[in-house]
Amino acid sequence: MKKIPHDYYLRFMxxxxxxxxLEFHVKGNFTIHEAFQGRTGLHSLSEQYLAQLTGNELILYxxxxxxxxxxxxxxxxxxxLYRNESCERFLPLGLEFSEVEKLVYPLLSRxxxxxxxxxxxGGALYPAEVFLCSLAENGAAxxxxxxxxHLLPNSRKFEIVxxxxxxxxxxxxxxxxxxxxxxxxxxIIYFAYMPKNLFKYRYRGYRMALMxxxxxxxxxxxxxxxxxxxxxxxxxxxxSMICKVLGINPALFFPMCVHFIGKQxxx
Length: 267
Description:
alpha+beta, six-stranded antiparallel β-sheet, 7 helices, 6 strands, 26% helix, 15% strand, oxidoreductase activity, Nitroreductase-like, SagB/ThcOx family dehydrogenase, Bacteriocin_Proc_Enz
């Protein structure tokens, strides 16, 4: 079989492993919908405790000074190894399709004769699937007539996601109206495809998928900086709502995080 259909992996996936991983995964899902505004909450922590508990480093011995200073080398914040800070608000300045193409270059296979890509993958499973969604307000479609593309890193192609995708519904599923980040032009959604994820390493595969997606979005962050683009990682969405808009099975495709890309005045 030259091209394996995505559901072919179901033949090799152990159902008990899958059911347990699914049960664990959905515990981390949010239900974000206007019908529940003001009726749900994550915790009862005060702003004072939140400020104290977030943004800190973990010190193992807080009452003892077992520390060594790091010798400061010449730091160049413009270096390719430094990502930009997360964007607070995106501006509708337009994003060319050529910029979208360049954004994914680091993820592609370097050699057409090799399955190896621009990011590491445990056991060469590559369970991470990258979907690129145009959120442009002008409504213009990308080449091929699509608004949502699925990256094929080994083939070095985009697969056009079929179906009548409502961009406004997609925007609401990804970015609820209560959160104002402005106008990101692009949303990259990183999915873990579970049958491909679990068939070889079982439960360990779930951890490997998270590691792989972390590698991918950092590469995108660094490439975005080189292109003068702004980024913001996002997790305030409901899995099933995203999958419904895209027309994919939420029991098989787990959206692990969303990456907003766009432009702002200063980089």
